[in-house]
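User: quick one, sequence for these tokens?
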């Protein structure tokens, strides 16, 4: 492992890479420098809550991170295996810094860390992660003996079963506050062998009297044997679609690997655009509040703005990524935030994202609604048509690609705060670099289904010739 490889692990808003490039020693460095370069500098308590997902390398990173915090003079509440939104809840519950060992939806060989300074302040490259990165690189270049000797320290004193059990009870009670009564429902939940299964098994199943939950891949397995834990791709939703039809279920939900995203399938087995789920949440929640602002990424569909306009509200736009969304939500005190990637953010949850809260709100909505989920969505589906996100390796200069696209559509209205998002007469597109993977992401929205494929081919031709 060389210094450049370590440097490349530090992304815009988390640490992420392939094991063993990211390993226990890197995690040690992150924990150590989180204390030294962030918490000490900002005068915050030198305490961290930490959880980990079910990836095969997560126990090693979990232990290394804890050892790093201890070596820096910090203390740790080690809460074991859990989801990212459980870490967010723990950070709020204990009013302290939080860390999650996870690579979210990435391939099974990857791992990483998400860091919260204090909810909802994430630690991104502009808010402390660069200092942590530089500190880790310094340790690897100049002080590896210290790292290796410090990693011999036992973490047993940090792992208290009683503490973890108390936390689990508190988290269950939090979710229970969202339970409602109504008509009987059947819901298929695909956890993809990730941490959504932990939430369902320990905190949801058999707790809502009128709802039968069908287990689809709830068993945690870091090999992700059934499909990758990334429901953003339609191919990974096929099993859920089939199971919903087999069971005659009212809907299906898929978690991603660390349980903080939600993707929905209606009772007909059809995929639901995430922005349409935002629309349902907005219609349910915004009539109850005065501040009718929401935060969305530039890549969101026009449905978000249209729904908010119908509710007498407006949209605050920002870059894609949870650090940007949460910051903008805090500044605007927005009730909800959303991304087309299936992240939904809730003010009442500390402006943090949670997959399970989306499901609980949908249950509350549908239990007292005569129409089916597909019925509620039918009007929107006849008006808003979106492509699946297309990911491409960046094989030429990205700025040249953007320049060629602007030349091809001189009459388009452009926004370049996060790649290029362009509005044309009857359609729009967005092209941006991923913050977590070495790819660029393209998405199209049109007012007619037949136009999507045509415009996608048109755009890809320009991109590939750049």
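Assistant:
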């Amino acid at each position: 492992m060389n210094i450049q490889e370590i440097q490349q692990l530090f992304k815009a808003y988390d640490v992420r890479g392939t094991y063993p490039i990211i390993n226990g020693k890197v995690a040690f460095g992150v924990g150590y420098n989180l204390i030294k370069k962030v918490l000490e500098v900002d005068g915050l308590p030198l305490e961290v809550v930490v959880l980990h997902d079910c990836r095969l390398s997560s126990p090693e990173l979990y232990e290394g991170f804890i050892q790093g915090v201890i070596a820096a003079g910090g203390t740790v509440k080690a809460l074991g295996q859990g989801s990212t939104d459980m870490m967010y809840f723990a950070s709020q519950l204990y009013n302290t810094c939080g860390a999650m060992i996870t690579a979210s939806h990435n391939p099974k060989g990857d791992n990483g860390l998400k860091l919260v300074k204090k909810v909802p302040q994430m630690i991104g490259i502009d808010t402390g992660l660069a200092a942590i990165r530089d500190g880790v690189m310094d340790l690897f270049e100049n002080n590896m003996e210290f790292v290796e000797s410090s990693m011999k320290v036992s973490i047993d004193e940090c792992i208290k079963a009683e503490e973890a059990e108390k936390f689990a009870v508190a988290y269950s009670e939090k979710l229970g506050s969202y339970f409602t009564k109504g008509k009987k429902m059947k819901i298929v939940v695909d956890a993809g062998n990730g941490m959504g299964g932990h939430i369902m098994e320990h905190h949801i199943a058999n707790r809502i009297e009128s709802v039968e939950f069908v287990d689809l891949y709830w068993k945690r397995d870091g090999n992700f044997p059934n499909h990758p834990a990334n429901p953003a791709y339609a191919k990974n939703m096929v099993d859920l679609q089939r199971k919903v039809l087999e069971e005659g279920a009212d809907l299906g939900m898929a978690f991603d690997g660390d349980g903080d995203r939600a993707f929905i399938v209606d009772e007909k087995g059809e995929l639901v655009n995430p922005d349409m789920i935002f629309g349902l949440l907005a219609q349910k929640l915004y009539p109850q509040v005065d501040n009718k602002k929401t935060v969305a990424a530039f890549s969101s569909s026009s449905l978000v703005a249209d729904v908010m306009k119908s509710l007498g509200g407006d949209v605050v736009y920002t870059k894609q990524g949870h650090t940007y969304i949460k910051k903008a939500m805090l500044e605007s005190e927005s009730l909800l935030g959303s991304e087309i990637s299936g992240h939904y953010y809730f003010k009442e949850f500390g402006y943090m994202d949670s997959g399970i809260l989306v499901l609980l709100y949908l249950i509350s909505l549908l239990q007292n609604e005569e129409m089916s989920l597909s019925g509620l969505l039918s009007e929107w589906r006849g008006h808003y048509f979106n492509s699946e996100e297309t990911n491409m390796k960046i094989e030429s200069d990205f700025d040249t690609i953007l320049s060629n696209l602007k030349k091809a559509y001189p009459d388009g209205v452009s926004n370049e705060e996060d790649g290029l998002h362009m509005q044309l007469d009857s359609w729009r597109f967005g092209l941006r670099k991923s913050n977590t993977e070495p790819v660029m992401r393209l998405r199209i929205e049109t007012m007619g289904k037949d136009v999507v494929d045509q415009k996608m081919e048109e755009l890809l031709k320009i991109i590939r010739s750049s």
